[in-house]
Design a protein that fits this description.
Blueprint: E1 3-7, H1 12-24, E2 28-33, E3 52-56, H2 62-70, E4 74-77, H3 84-89, H4 92-112, E5 115-121, H5 147-166, E6 170-175, E7 178-179, H6 188-197, E8 203-205, E9 211-213, E10 215-216, H7 217-230, E11 236-239, E12 244-246, H8 247-257, E13 266-268, H9 283-289, H10 298-311, H11 313-329
Parallel strand pairs: 1-2, 1-4, 2-3, 4-5, 5-6, 6-11, 7-10, 8-13
Antiparallel strand pairs: 9-12
Helix pairs in contact: 1-7, 2-4, 4-5, 6-8, 6-10
Bound molecules: nicotinamide-adenine-dinucleotide (NAD) and thymidine-5'-diphospho-beta-D-xylose.
Length: 332
């Protein structure tokens, strides 16, 4: 891993991953990113210019992607449309980027025999009941619920088919919900933190009893490096940090950390097809590759995230008004 191409490297997880790679490895990084509404050049701005290049473009543009892939020895693929709510409003960019973009990258990686790691989500497995003792494993059948998760499932299937049919040197990871620095204010945790910072109340969809399995973005990054360095070609690794919490509990904790009454939230319209619970069993990654999360204390990680949003208002404020207007139009 000397010359690393990171698609979607200006997004939330991508930027955290690139920062992690620059700090913990000697790799030189090229970011390929279309710079959609979800991207942030600022998240990469302070990195050493001799270690990182930014190429602005579409992962579904074969003319751009083919020579770029040829000039690298490893590709980590994060570029995607990622917001479930938006995928219900207009699935088109989700199909174009997540399915056609992944296909375009696969063709280039195959042609130039470049190692690929495909970053995916636990949402491909659908959801679990609240009282189900089971968690997702690498053997759980695919059962995606939303247009977003269906396109991610499709991209995973394409990668596996290219591994089996064409001998592609690829791995896949499916990770649970990330939180941390640089996450767009449309997502659950940043939305609620910034609502409170603006003097409004957090908003829970439906009854707020849905469960997500939270992992700090830095721990996702260290898992990706472990897979790149020690993962077995053709294998899938589930990434999670035993962070199951109901949305209601996350909001109550946030309110307490921010000095507000714990029940000072609103219940708003539910998401169509809302997945009830995600939960990851990450034993394979831990036992086989020796990976461990560093942020095992969710409250400490959340408190750090609150501080970060408090001190980065100039970064998120320009996106806040339009994001909230879109939610308000849906009664959310
Ligand atoms: P994000 O929405 O914050 O960032 C996505 C990035 O991809 C942006 O920088 C955007 O500009 C770029 N992009 C979008 N379309 C593109 C295109 N056509 N060509 C090039 N670049 C394009 O997303 P994120 O939360 O950082 O997620 C990154 C990856 O991790 C995604 O593949 C997502 O499915 C996966 N994932 C996310 C989570 C999570 O909790 N956020 C959990 C598991 C897996
Ligand atoms: O205002 C809100 N109120 C609320 O109750 C918002 C924005 C969300 N929610 C709920 C919906 C979910 O149960 O919070 C939970 C988390 O919502 P999102 O942040 O939209 O994440 P989710 O739909 O779980 O998907 C995320 O994790 C898996 C990422 O956005 C995906 O890209 C990733 O694959």
């Amino acid at each position: 891993m000397d010359r690393l191409l990171v698609t979607g490297g200006a997004g939330f997880i991508g930027a955290n991953f690139v920062r992690h790679v620059i700090e913990h490895t000697d790799a030189r990084v090229t970011v390929l990113d279309k710079l959609t509404y979800a991207a942030s050049r600022e998240a990469l701005a302070d990195l050493p210019p001799d270690r990182i290049d930014l190429v602005i473009g579409d992962v579904a543009d074969a003319g751009l992607v083919d020579p770029l892939v040829a000039a690298h020895d490893t590709v980590v693929h994060l570029a995607a449309e990622t917001h479930n709510d938006s995928s219900l409003d207009d699935p088109t960019p989700f199909v174009m980027t997540n399915v056609v973009g992944t296909f375009t990258l696969l063709q280039a990686v195959r042609k130039h025999d470049v190692r690929l790691h495909h970053v995916s989500t636990d949402e491909v497995y659908g959801d679990l009941a609240l009282d189900d003792p089971k968690r997702f494993t690498e053997d759980t059948p695919y059962r995606p619920s939303s247009p977003y998760s269906a396109t991610k499932a499709g991209s995973d299937h394409l990668v596996r088919a290219w591994v089996r049919s064409f001998g592609l040197r690829a791995t896949i990871s499916n990770c649970s919900n990330n939180y941390g620095h640089w996450q767009h204010v449309e997502k659950f945790i940043p939305r609620q933190i910034t609502e409170v910072l603006e003097g409004r109340r957090p908003r829970l969809y439906g009854d707020g009893r849905q469960v997500r399995d939270w992992i700090h973005a830095d721990d996702h990054s260290s898992a990706l490096v472990a897979i790149l360095e020690r993962g077995r070609i053709g294998e899938t690794y589930l990434v999670g940090a035993d962070g199951e919490r109901s949305n209601r509990d996350v909001v109550r904790l946030l309110l307490r950390l921010m000095g507000r009454p714990e029940d000072d939230f609103e219940l708003v319209n539910d998401r169509a097809g809302h997945d009830v619970r995600y939960a990851i069993e990450s034993g394979k990654l831990r036992l086989e590759l020796g990976w461990q999360p560093r942020f095992s204390d969710f409250e400490a990680g959340l408190s750090d995230t609150v501080d970060w949003y408090r001190s980065h208002r100039q970064w998120w404020a320009p996106h806040k008004r339009a994001t909230e207007a879109a939610y308000a139009a849906k009664g959310q």
